[in-house]
Amino acid sequence: MNTMNEAISKIGIVPVIKLNHPEQDAAPLAHALCAGDVPVAEVTFRAAGADTAIRLMKDACPDMIVGAGTVTAKEQIDAVLAVGGQFIVTPGFDPELVAYAQEKDIPIYPGCTTPTDYHAALKFGLEVLKFFPAEQSGGLAKIKAMSAPFPQFKVMPTGGVSLKNLGEYLKSPVIAACGGSYMVTADLIDSQKWDEITQLCRKSREIVKEARGNG
Fold first, then answer.
1. Which of 109, 101, 103, 102 is nearest to 44 (CA)?
2. How many domains does the chain have?
């Protein structure tokens, strides 16, 4: 895997974040995630100002890996690059966006849940695919089945991942990392429960280490 894929895989869990008030919450959230040994974030464009949030998180924690999620347009990729964002996640497989991200030399993880998606991703030489929505699309059983004809891919399941099933996913060698929002819910962020976010991150990392046999 390339350097970014390896770095994300090593952490094992990627918080998927919707920030309604980036100027207020981005920096303390970044510190809370890093304090919990989860120095990575996918900031989604489901809320306005995702690029601002990425910039502020990188300013607060320069060594943190911060990228964008729910990317659906080239303009959003440009905005992410302008603020130092390091990866792109799309909800589905859009060949135009994949080609554009590769042209701009930024890693992209498109949402793929069908053999057709995987086959399309193969033509772009991708290594890691987002599997979204994971639980609703068949979960780990489907991911394993899909890996039979497409063994070259590692997968990042997102959607329905929690502390309860995180370990089950990560025990599979097909899984690069899991995306999750349980440690960055709207309630936790809007109530500024930074210590609780840090604790959930620490629990997640314990599960990662246990599942991969290095706990």
1. 109
2. 1
Band (pLDDT 50/70/90 cuts) for residue 45 is: very high
Q: Where are the beta strands (DSSP E) in 61-175?
A: 65-69, 88-90, 108-110, 128-131, 154-157
22 CB burial (10 A radius; 0-12, 13-18, 19+): buried
List pLDDT tens digits, range 58-87: 999 999 999 999 999 999 999 999 999 999
Is 57 part of a structural domain of the chain?
A: yes
Residue 107 lies in a domain: yes
Q: 54, 80 in Cβ contact below 8 A?
A: yes
Strand order of the β-sheet with 178-180 is 108-110, 88-90, 65-69, 40-44, 13-17, 178-180
Could you give the residue numbers annotated as active site?
A: 42, 130
- Domain presence at residue 16: yes
- Supply the range of the domain harboring residue 147: 3-207
Is 174 a domain residue? Answer: yes
- 108-110/88-90 β-pairing: parallel
Return the CATH number at 142: 3.20.20.70
